[in-house]
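notes to self, project folder thing:

trying the whole complex as one job this time. last attempt i did each chain seperately and stitching them together was a nightmare. two parts in total, labels are on each line so i dont mix them up again. if this works i'll redo the older ones the same way
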Amino acid sequence: MTTVTETHADTHEHGMSDAGYIKIAIILALITGLEVSTYYIDFGPLFMPALLTMMVVKFVMVVSYFMHLKFDSKIFSFLFYVGLGLAIFVYCMALATFKFFIA
Amino acid sequence: MADIATHDTDHATDHGHHSSTGLSNNKLAMWLFLGSECLLFGGLISTYMLYRGRVQNGPHPSQIYDIPFTSVSSFVLLMSSLTMVLAVSSAQRKDDTKTNLWLLITALLGATFIGGQVYEFTTFYREGLGFTTSLFGSSFYSLTGFHGVHVSLGVIMLLSLMGIIKKGKITGDKAEVVELIGLYWHFVDIVWIIIFTLVYLIPS
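result (full assembly):
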């Protein structure tokens, strides 16, 4: 029982190995390279969705792995994502009142 | 029973004060703070989105942005997140030497990013974009300036943390203190991930 508890605590505290973090960083660097390539290469109608998707993927990867939300208590995820969701909702509403999306 | 009570007290001392959820109060407070920071940067980003096309005087965004330069800055900040998480990992292994080394590298990468931002601001100013030149200029400098202040504060926190670790003045859980500073640092990085895409890469 003690062993199980200790193993759980170890995984919980450490999250990933250093090699795992380096792999995540390489993936993030590659996505950044792809993002920058949109400045030089014409992606046509895919330009905006591709950029926004890559931005969200990078955001989620940093929050999940580097900030350990994937391995930590769900309460931390709740606190952060509620703040983020509230921010997105409030500012989408604010921008809508300025007819930003129509313009 | 007494043994259990003693064990609980020791555990609480080692890992900071814990709430009724069994989680660290410090960590809860930091996540709550970061959640509220989303509202601050949300306001600044949406203001920029609203005003970036409002240029009556001075240069337009597309005329002054230097995407290759900003891409390198973004890469530097992104890599500082890796060095920060390696510092946290070293702190959890109680390896003070490596923790301090990774913290120093993170601070240097952060300082490099700030240096790049100072260079960018200076260049933009010389090209005719002042803080009050246009609504675009005001919203751009407010957004990126606020972010720059956050990075600068992060660098100061990293350097202070190194000094505190070297002097052995952390009484509680050292790894948790490094992790808390790390959470702030990563937040600054994710804000830049959004700014880089919405401000620099998507044309107005």
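what i see at first glance: Residues 1-12 of chain A have pLDDT under 50 and may be disordered.
need to look closer tmrw
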